[in-house]
Every structure is written in C-alpha cells, then in structure tokens.
Amino acid sequence: MPFRDVVNTLAAPFSAAPQELVKTVNRFAGISWANDQLALVYDANSTQQKIKVSRINPASPSQAPVTLIDRSENDRYNDPGTPVTIKNQYNRAVLYVSPSHELLMTAPGASPEGDRPFLSSFNLNNSKQNILWRSAAPYYEQVADVIDPAKLVVVIARESVSSPVNYYLQNLKKKSSVALTAFPHPQPQLKGVQKQLLKYKRKDGVDLTAMLYLPEGYDPAKDGRLPVLMWAYPREYKSASDAAQVRGSAYRFTRVNYGSPIFWVTRGFAVMDATEMPIVGEGDKEPNDTFIDQLVMNAEAAVNKITEIGVGDKDRISVGGHSYGAFMTSNLLAHTNLFKAGISRSGAYNRTLTPFGFQNEQRTYWQAPEVYYKMSPFSYADKLKTPILLIHGEADNNSGTFPIQSERLYNAIKGNGGTARLVFLPQESHGYAAKESILHMLWEMDEWLMKYVK
C-alpha cells in the first residue's frame, strides 16, 4: 500500500470533521513540534530497520513532506542525533530553531574509535550538519543540558576511566568552563581496574568488539592466564556493515550496577562485557534463519581473541547473559564446547511458548516452525552437558520470559543427565530485584563460577 498511517488533527471544541495533517509511507513513529510552520514527522519500518524524518508545515497540510533523514536505525556512524528543545509560552517542549533555520542536535557520535558524543547544527533546508563540539580522549563527554542554545551555553557531563561523571558549565563560543560538581569515586574497590576495547573479526569477516576488564595490577607476562566471564546479548541486523560498527567507549567510567558482570574482575576474572553477538540477515534473508551458525561464529571469535592476547585460559571460560542473553547462553552451551560453565538469567528457552514472534522475529510459529524449533535450546537439552546456572525472578511478568521457561529447561536438562541448578528469586520481576534478591543472585553466581570456572 502507498501509505501505512495517516495523522489527523481535530480543532477545539472537537465537533468538526478531522483534517488530514500527514500520511506516512511506513509506520508513524511520532512528531516533534517547533511552531505553526514547522514540525518533524518520524516514520519507521521495524522489519527493514529503517527510520525516516521529514519536515512538514502544519499550517499547510497540502504541502508534501520534505525528507531530511532516511537511514538504517542501526547505522550509528551516521546518526545525526536528537534535536534540542526549548520551552514555549505554554511551558511545552518544542524544537529550537535558529534564525538561520537550523536545529541543534545532540548525538552519541559513534565512530571507529568508539562513541564520541557531539553537538551540531542541522540545516533544515539542505540537511547539512556542522559539528560544533565533540568529545575527545581521554574523556567521555556528552551534552547533559542546553542552557542557552543561541549563545551555545551548555552543561557538559564529563567522565573518564578513573573519574566518575561530573558536570561543567561551558560557553562553547567563548570556550569558558566552570566546574559545577566534584563527586568522589562511588566504588573505590574498582580503582585500578584495567579497561580496554577489544577489536576482532569473526570468520566471515564481520568486525566485532568487546569491553575487557582486567584486575588491578594484572600483567599477563607475570601473572599468567585468567579465568574469563563473557557477558553478551545478541542483536539482529539487516546489514553486515551496521553490525560491524564499534559501540561503546573505552573512556567511560567503570560503574557497577546490580546486574553487572564486572563484579568478578575483583574476584580474579577477566571480564568481557558487551561482547558483540550480531545476527545478520541482509536483503531478503531473515537473520534468524542462521541464528545458531552466526552465534557460534561470534563466540568462537571472542574466545580466540581473549586467548590470542595471552589473557584468557581456554579451559576456564564461562558465558552468561540476561533475558535474550540467557537464551544465547543456553544455546551456546548446547551447540559448542567452548565454555566451562554458563549463567542464564531470566531467559526464554522454548520458542513455541512465544509463538507470535520474539525480539525482531516477525514470523509466527506456524509460518516458520523449523526456525522456532532450531532456535530453542530446549530442543537440544539432551546435548546441554556443560554446567548451567538458571536464575529467574518468580514474579517475572514479561510475556516472553515467564518463569516456566527456566523450570521446563531445568527439568529437561536434569532428565537427560546434565548438570544444572535452578534458582528462583522471590519478588523479582524481569528487570528489577529487591535488595535481598540481588544479594542472593550474586552469591549464587559467585559460587557457580568459583566451583566450575576458577
């Protein structure tokens, strides 16, 4: 069909007929308002992972939208960013538009060197972008707030590997800076932890990355190889070039939250966090048709990299993940012998229990039953002999990860003679846990890793 959605307006007192404002070729994804003559319309195609931004004139709906941005939503290198807003006379957030008809944009600034956030101007007439300020090593900086867009007075959030986020008032035109905060290190136990961005390739040529954390003072030449905890989450891509883009920054401050694997760097592990696990399906190909093959390639490349640099002990590598990362973990243990143990937290393991799609899979079980079967680690429970720790919140109400998923996989593994432990955390949902549950989870994970890996 030529158009997927239409947006109508209805004037107060809402008794007249609706008036058409704009039609979108793809699914309508929102509007950012500026003034009576300008608004930005967003439409997206989730199957093709495309997003488009168009300029419209609300006062003249008959004028055709003008496309400003049309790109892959996973192409982070060419992400122009998010427009800066100001408050109008009604105290509503609207787009800031300069006298020269330009927007101000804040962007994560992904690049082959890692994320380098920037502030730019974006010309609404020709879509040309001019970077006004950009983060530079050895810091990771980003615009936290724009105080005066006309004078380019902003608040910058600055952090580094060893320094937590602190805020600075900066006048970018006058190049002046005033420190606003001086927060101390919130987790001094992590001082001295080494951090580096690993870059490597899988065997089909796709570039991959992982953030590596090493214990304080560790020297591979003197201290030998370490046990490894690899933590990951698979993502689908429609382009190999998008999948290969570098994500994250080696200059960000190391901060640990309750679900972080970085805890175990203090226990003598090398921790590979955010280990890239892309699943690519270009053109008419569906990523999930080769999910297992690509997952194995990703894991092999990561294991090869950590051992080639002299850090990881190939006989003491573990893998883990949360949600879809838990699904990934159990699949890797079922289809490879790369790992000594695995930790799957709040996952789904039988895709027939999510028959109307999952993640970016658009096909139903009845349209692609072989995909649902092959992707389910439950189907290969008889092959899953590597020790696996299954953790699940008993109050998980996420429709894709009901607790029965872990219970059924545990029973299948045990029934086939495998080694597994199932831990239910009381009162925990899919992404939140009470303090007592967090401590219980960490204790279980630590005991498992110390028993089977270290």
Layout of strands and helices, then pairs:
Elements: E1 5-9, E2 19-24, E3 27-35, E4 38-45, E5 50-56, E6 66-72, E7 82-83, E8 85-87, E9 93-95, E10 102-107, E11 118-123, E12 129-134, E13 140-148, E14 153-159, E15 166-171, E16 176-179, E17 194-201, E18 207-214, H1 220-223, E19 226-237, H2 240-243, E20 270-280, H3 291-308, E21 312-322, H4 324-335, E22 341-345, H5 369-375, E23 388-393, H6 404-415, E24 420-425, H7 435-452
Parallel strand pairs: 19-20, 19-21, 21-22, 22-23, 23-24
Antiparallel strand pairs: 1-2, 3-4, 4-5, 5-6, 7-10, 8-9, 10-11, 11-12, 13-14, 14-15, 15-16, 17-18, 18-20
Beta-strand fraction estimate:
35-45%
Tell me the major beta sheet: 8 strands, mixed
> Which secondary-structure class do the elements indicate?
alpha+beta
Low-confidence stretches: none
How far apart are the first and last residues' alpha carbons, in Å?
Answer: 58 Å
Number of strands: 24
What is the residue-mean pLDDT, rounded to a whole number?
Answer: 95
Count of separate DSSP helical elements: 7
Percent helix: 10-25%
Side by side, the strands of the main sheet go 17-18-20-19-21-22-23-24
What does this structure look like?
The chain is an alpha+beta fold and 454 residues long. Helix content is 17%, strand content 35%. The chain has helices at 220-223, 240-243, 291-308, 324-335, 369-375, 404-415, 435-452; strands at residues 5-9, 19-24, 27-35, 38-45, 50-56, 66-72, 82-83, 85-87, 93-95, 102-107, 118-123, 129-134, 140-148, 153-159, 166-171, 176-179, 194-201, 207-214, 226-237, 270-280, 312-322, 341-345, 388-393, 420-425. Strand 19, helix 2 (240-243) and strand 20 form a beta-alpha-beta unit. Helix 3 crosses helix 4. The termini are far apart. The mean pLDDT is 95.
